[in-house]
Specification:
2 copies of one chain form a homodimer. With 192 residues, chain A is of the alpha+beta class. Chain A has one domain. The first copy, chain A, has 3 helices and 10 strands; from the N terminus they run ββββαββααββββ. Chain A has a 6-stranded antiparallel β-sheet with strand order 1-10-3-8-6-5. The first copy, chain A, is globular, with a radius of gyration of 15 Å. In chain A, 53% of the residues are buried.
């Protein structure tokens, strides 16, 4: 298992058919996931296409994560938790200033993803909404109001995705206070 | 009032401070809205940043639509309907094939927006999730399931937005069967 240190991120290739296992090593932690077509990184993960084709905002085992070009990128093949978020964008310096005006500004998962993906020729403006693994964002169906709650994931819980095309993956250990219950923990991953 | 003919789209500049009024001329019709920074079209509307800052998926009077760079793009200043969607991407040839396999393929709002925005140097892959004016997409807060229902807008109902920066706007009259109750109607707009 490779460990992503607290408040950091990484990027790597994931080939079609390979599985990516994301592990909440200590529990109650979030990992922001991005995916791009390795052969043409202008094709990227799309929350809107995914909500449309899967007809739900709650993605779990059996659901597919789709690209902006309507191609299947990743399939969720195992899920110990069942609660993830695909509504919210990764935190950035601007979101830290907005949500945590009294705390030190951090570049957040957005900055960590931008730095990790830069060697693949992917720029800040190319970053779409991330699939936020283990993130707990309940939505009130009546009012539309959402809130960011601590994850329900326990130590050792995993999410496994299978690549449906050759991909560049960006992956983080969450940096924001609200998303992980105020604790900054590592995230593990494994490619099989 | 300018009329967008059924199943078509247009694009135009909207200057900071100007108001854009979108009119459901006959009722029960949807209009997909995109916005880009006129001075740098890599800055675009972001559903994820908007859900994050507004803390809701239901946007109405007083809410702001945010960009991928965390800048305010548009403020909703009047809303006769109160039901709009920001979850789903505009329909494309691929979504027509997926959702309406027995019906003729149409390029949809996605194709109409891409064609209308092309003179501004905006390409297909640059199109983010649209703010789908008058679109009725209830979400079940328990299961996450969503459905596309006919709009509740009546003839003459309007949504008014104020530009918070100089913008390129893309705007359509919806082309898909489910979104507008199976009828293709025009959409009107007015700049003030």
């Amino acid at each position: 298992m490779t460990v992503i240190e607290p408040r950091s991120g990484t990027a790597f290739e994931l080939r079609s058919g390979q599985q990516l296992q994301i592990i909440d090593i200590e529990g109650t932690q979030v990992s922001d996931l991005l995916a791009f077509n390795l052969d043409d990184t202008r094709e990227a993960l799309s929350n809107g296409r995914t909500f449309d084709y899967e007809e739900t905002i709650s993605l779990t085992t059996g659901n597919i994560l789709w690209s902006n070009r309507s191609n299947a990128m990743l399939e969720i093949v195992a899920d110990d938790v069942g609660t993830h978020d695909f509504l919210l964008t990764p935190c950035s310096k601007a979101t830290f200033r907005h949500f945590y005006p009294d705390k030190p500004v951090h570049r957040g998962c957005f900055g960590n993803l931008a730095a990790a993906l830069q060697p693949f020729g992917i720029e800040e403006d190319d970053l779409p909404c991330a699939f936020n693994v283990f993130m707990n964002v309940p939505v009130n169906g009546q009012t539309g109001r959402l809130s960011v709650e601590p994850p329900i994931s326990k130590a050792g819980d995993m999410l496994t995705l299978r690549a449906k095309m050759d991909l560049v993956i960006g992956l983080t250990a969450c940096s924001a206070y609200a998303s992980n219950g105020g604790q900054f923990k590592p995230i593990g991953y494994r490619i099989r």
